[in-house]
Amino acid sequence: MTRDRLRIAVQKKGRLADGSLSLLARAGLNVKPRDDELLLRVKNLPIDILRVRDDDIAAFVADGACELGIVGLNTLAEDGYGEDHPEIDILAPLGVARCALKIAVPESWNGAGIGDLAGKRIATSYPRLLKRFLDARGLEASIIEMTGSVEVAPRLQLAAAICDLVSTGATLEANGLKAIETVFESEATLIRSRCALPPALDDVAQRLARRIDSVVATEGTKYIMLNAPRDALAQITALLPGAGAPTVIPLARENQVAVHAVCQESVFWETLEGLKAAGASAILVVPIEKMML
Ligand code: PRT
Ligand code: ZN
Question: What mean pLDDT do residues 152-159 have?
Answer without folding.
Answer: 97
